[in-house]
């Protein structure tokens, strides 16, 4: 389950596999400046500070130019994280507009932490046996 | 008579397969030709070969085509365009599939306009012999025809001058900073050449960009039904259903799968050359654009392709 950490708040969003950054943030109850939601208007760009992502559709050169393809610019409606990534909003911060949805993200966090703990324990017991 | 109507929009899309799903299955346009990387459509109530061309690669608008009544109108418009200071080139029959010869020029707003006098006639889907009211098996929204487009330009007044001088269009509504035209800065202008309330509109903004192109619907019921279908098909709705104060049209703004804004537009009062122009001042622009919300969402001026 890839995560998106939003700087500067440090809020961690849990995404489904193949889910876009925009979809993940909105599903967790957050809003920010978005437009067409289909990769055409370029308004939902954020900066990727750590981690890798790819685009799930071709993106027009007028939307993401050559420089932007290499400088961490992340068109959030079409960007799918390849693993855990950290993003920073441009000129604004995300706004929590649906607290109910944030509870779902909180549950995803608890599940992920429980799984991590279980994995760690399994690893420890395996190591001990050896 | 010179220009009769905006005959076609040629738009760019990033993924043709997804675009086809939207324009054919959600909007219900009829595919009239397809080739690698390109598809041609018409609405059920249109008789010419196509009104929408989609080309894979990029986003936004490649060009607009305006149809004149007579072949001789082409020469007259070419002269007017040259007199206005535009560089005009001739296009041959076949430059555009099933479209006649004509002229092409780039406007001061850096949009490409073509003028032609005929297209291959296919006929409407109900025909002309004792026709029924609509085709029984429409797909999705089933839009009957292309309606109008809104483009962006740095100099709206100059674009209005161009449409008046070259195409003999007239403005029906405007957003302007002062009611006195001489003192005013033009923010937006809605123009036509016949009784349709607008065929082209120009809003102050980035050169060469497309704000939206629109399809015709008959009434509120159809607009509401279209909105339901957009939810079913996960089409992102920008705003609506609502009404425009300007034109009085009933509307939904939504996005195609490449992010180009589309609109379905119903109503609008009849335009006449001698009808005084409706003038909106910037303090009322929100009501002019979105008559019910009376609040201009930030996307209206920032989101375009």
TrEMBL record, chain A:
Domain 2Fe-2S ferredoxin-type: 2-93
Residues making up the signal peptide according to the UniProt record: none
Record-linked InterPro entries: 2Fe-2S_ferredoxin-like_sf, 2Fe-2S_ferredoxin-type, 2Fe2S_fd_BS, Beta-grasp_dom_sf
A Pfam entry, by short name: Fer2
Gene3D superfamilies in alphabetical order: 3.10.20.30
Any GO MF annotation of the entry: 2 iron, 2 sulfur cluster binding
Name under which the protein is recorded: Ferredoxin
From TrEMBL, chain B:
Cofactor(s) this protein requires: Fe(2+)
SUPFAM superfamilies assigned: Glyoxalase/Bleomycin resistance protein/Dihydroxybiphenyl dioxygenase
Residues covered by the VOC domain: 5-118, 145-267
EC number: 1.13.11.2
PROSITE patterns, per the entry: EXTRADIOL_DIOXYGENAS, VOC
Subunit structure: Homotetramer.
Listed name of the protein: Metapyrocatechase
Source organism per UniProt: Nostocoides australiense Ben110
Record lineage: Bacteria, Bacillati, Actinomycetota, Actinomycetes, Micrococcales
Gene: xylE
């Amino acid at each position: 389950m890839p995560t998106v950490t939003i700087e500067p708040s440090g809020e961690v969003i849990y995404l489904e596999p193949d889910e876009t950054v925009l979809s993940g943030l909105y599903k967790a109850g957050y809003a920010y400046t978005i437009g067409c939601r289909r990769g055409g208007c370029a308004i939902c760009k954020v900066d990727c500070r750590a981690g890798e992502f790819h685009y799930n559709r071709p993106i027009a050169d007028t939307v993401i130019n050559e420089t932007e393809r290499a400088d961490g610019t992340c068109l959030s409606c079409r960007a799918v994280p390849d693993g855990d990534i950290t993003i920073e909003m441009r000129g604004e911060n995300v706004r929590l507009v649906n607290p109910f949805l944030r509870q779902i993200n909180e549950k995803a966090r608890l599940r992920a932490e429980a799984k991590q703990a279980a994995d760690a324990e399994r690893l420890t017991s395996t190591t001990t046996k050896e | 008579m010179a220009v009769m109507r905006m005959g076609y929009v040629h738009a760019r899309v990033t993924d043709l397969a997804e675009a086809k799903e939207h324009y054919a299955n959600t909007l219900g346009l009829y595919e009239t030709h397809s080739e690698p990387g390109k598809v041609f459509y018409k609405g059920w109530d249109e008789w010419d070969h196509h009104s929408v061309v989609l080309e894979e690669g990029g986003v936004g608008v490649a060009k607009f085509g305006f149809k004149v009544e007579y072949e001789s109108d082409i020469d007259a418009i070419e002269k007017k365009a040259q007199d206005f200071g535009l560089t005009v080139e001739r296009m041959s029959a076949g430059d555009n599939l099933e479209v006649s010869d004509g002229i092409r020029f780039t406007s001061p707003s850096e949009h490409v306009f073509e003028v032609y006098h005929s297209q291959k006639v296919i006929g409407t889907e109900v025909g002309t012999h004792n026709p029924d009211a609509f085709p029984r098996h429409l797909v999705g929204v089933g839009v009957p025809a292309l309606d109008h487009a809104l483009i962006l330009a740095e100099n709206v007044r100059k674009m209005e001058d161009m449409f008046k001088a070259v195409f003999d269009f007239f403005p029906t509504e405007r957003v302007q900073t002062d009611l006195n035209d001489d003192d005013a800065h033009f923010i937006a202008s809605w123009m036509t050449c016949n009784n349709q309330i607008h065929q082209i509109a120009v809003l102050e903004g980035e050169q060469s960009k497309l704000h939206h192109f629109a399809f015709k619907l008959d009434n509120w019921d159809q607009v509401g039904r279209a909105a339901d279908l957009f939810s079913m098909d996960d089409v992102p709705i920008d705003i609506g259903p609502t009404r425009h104060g300007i034109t009085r049209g009933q509307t939904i703004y939504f996005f195609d799968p490449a992010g180009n804004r589309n609109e379905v537009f119903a109503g609008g009062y009849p335009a006449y050359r001698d009808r005084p122009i409706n003038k909106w001042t910037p303090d009322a622009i929100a009501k002019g654009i979105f008559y019910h919300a009376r609040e201009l969402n930030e996307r209206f001026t920032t989101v375009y392709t």
